[in-house]
């Protein structure tokens, strides 16, 4: 039976598979990706409508047993890296025994998570089902980031907020009972992009701090767990769909057009920017900034499969030389694990979430 693609719990219309394959071409600027964008006001209205639908879809997703945990507490963080000043929230999910940490002195690893939604919709609580496995299997704190969304905040605000979230945890590690030498990032879809690019942006920022003789506490981001990421905006959506073995199961043009028009701004934005398209980063940049361990998942029916697979292979080879665990999940579309079925979680999520967390647990134990 064909699986209906969803966008963070929202079922979306299946597109016909009969469209001819487009002529491949490299997109250079945002204008190439979105030739005739709606007004920013119109984009805000459309984003608001989709956010409402997403809320309903995720509410259904959360009903399936076992219910995902709720955040233990929330922190509001002021941006320090972004040129667009503001604030964002961190949702903290804490493991058993955390409340006694102040007495026992115990510190925990932390997984910093970024939700999906094309940088336009979604919430920090969306990945709570995955968070439950982090708490139970890794005995780690799960910190999910409510980064600021487009179109109100286009690139690079989300990347800056993502790096700022990690920086905040490093600087606040003692108060939050976090071991700053046992950090990891994780993310889904757009958030999977941030799981990668946040470490790159943080590395840039730390280099700038060192240049100004500003110190930062000792820390280590040991791993990134990235689920079906978008990694190369120089590829057109039409070309991506044409590479899919099931183009009828890929996200439709109306939603991907909204995402791209919202996030890819201003019009002269270069799409090969490494913090936007990490596949376009140099070997030197990736070798320096990406954590030593990478857990990488893609979906067989996803239009993002090929670019994800290519980046995973590249990270493992010289001169980058990361330790990569890669798996392509067969016969599932993009975002399959956010099924809005209120009766049961999406197929294979239990085994795959467990598998991912076992990798993180082993990495934290090294």
UniProtKB/TrEMBL annotation:
It holds the Pfam family Abhydrolase_3. Gene3D superfamilies: alpha/beta hydrolase. InterPro entries: AB_hydrolase_3 (IPR013094), AB_hydrolase_fold (IPR029058), GDXG_lipolytic_enzyme (IPR050300). Keywords: Hydrolase. Transmembrane segments: none annotated. It comes from the Eukaryota. PANTHER family: AB HYDROLASE SUPERFAMILY PROTEIN C4A8.06C, ALPHA_BETA HYDROLASE FOLD-3 DOMAIN-CONTAINING PROTEIN-RELATED. This is Alpha/Beta hydrolase protein. The lineage of its organism: Eukaryota, Fungi, Dikarya, Ascomycota, Pezizomycotina.
